[in-house]
Amino acid sequence: MAPLRVTDDDPDGDWTAPGVYRCAPQVFRIPLPLPNDGLRAVNVYAIADGSGWTLIDSGWAIAAARERLAAGLAALGAGLGDVHRFLVTHVHRDHYTQAAALRREFGMKVLLGRGEQQAFEEINRPGRRQGGSVHIERLRRAGAPQLADEVAAYPLTPADLSHWAAPDEWIENRAVIAIGADASLRELVAIETPGHTRGHLVFADPAGDLLFAGDHVLPSITPSIGFEPVPPASPLADFLVSLQLMRDRPDAALLPAHGRVGRRVHERVDELLAHHERRLDTTMKAVAEGRTTAAEVAASLTWTRRERALAELDTFNAMLAVLETSAHLDVLVERGVVSCETTDGVVRYYCL
């Protein structure tokens, strides 16, 4: 791999391009590649902590991501062995698994939010079908049996459960994490922001006017909701509360896990809240028109920034779309404008 250069981050540039991008004093963004993923890359943030580096998120445990991370650290005059710890925002493999893989070799610490502990227990449960059996059942309840069958027929690659070994430390909500001896360089505040996953954390740097936002606040797309081994009762309700929590905090520069830097947290949170209110309105309209299952409602909506029909999506993204529609319908039930009942294993919704 060609050596990488350290340059100032460009909000108008290609955020996925290989490189090391200075986005704040002693804070560098290193985008790592993702395999077979529309997101194309995940941003790992390297923070100088005196004698080494603290990294926020780690990337997917694949050779290309390891090589790119090593090259990025080399551009900073460091190596993989100079990473003291990973602070991981959430359980998903593009954020966690490379940290677990590198820990076996170099011994750095891996820290993760306490709220993800239940997910780890489920991932490592003996006899568990890797690949999402819980989501297959959720699709059947959503009135999408054919899609459930497609997901069930997915060829499964046996998971390397060593990549899902538990972290060295569980981070509690509001924990203050010192960067540098006695917080001489900066302090990060870990804040629980459930929604994307139940234990998702963001890391706020109030003095530096930064928010390492993981997948909670993304600059141009909306994160999937509740796609995890043990989905909560109402992941969208959790997400909306977590977004409002970010809105109620002081504004900060947004450092997302996917996408460009350069935006402010409050501006983007306002857009996300407005998006979901519009989505709730269109979901309500679909129920009023006589659609009763999440699958029927999802088929009446458009998806992605390209406004695609549900039938145009691949199996994985169609699954996410139907499950997100279920989450919106559940919020309408909680708001008292829609009722639901289960008939023959399928949840149906009706206007009140």
TrEMBL record:
Pfam families, per database record: Lactamase_B
Domain (Metallo-beta-lactamase): residue spans on this chain: 41-258
Highest taxon listed in the record's lineage: Bacteria
InterPro entries linked: Metallo-B-lactamas (IPR001279), RibonucZ/Hydroxyglut_hydro (IPR036866), Sec-metab_biosynth-thioest (IPR050662), WH-like_DNA-bd_sf (IPR036388)
SUPFAM superfamilies hit by this protein: Metallo-hydrolase/oxidoreductase
PANTHER family listed in its UniProt record: ENDORIBONUCLEASE LACTB2, METALLO-BETA-LACTAMASE SUPERFAMILY POTEIN
Designated name of the protein: MBL fold metallo-hydrolase
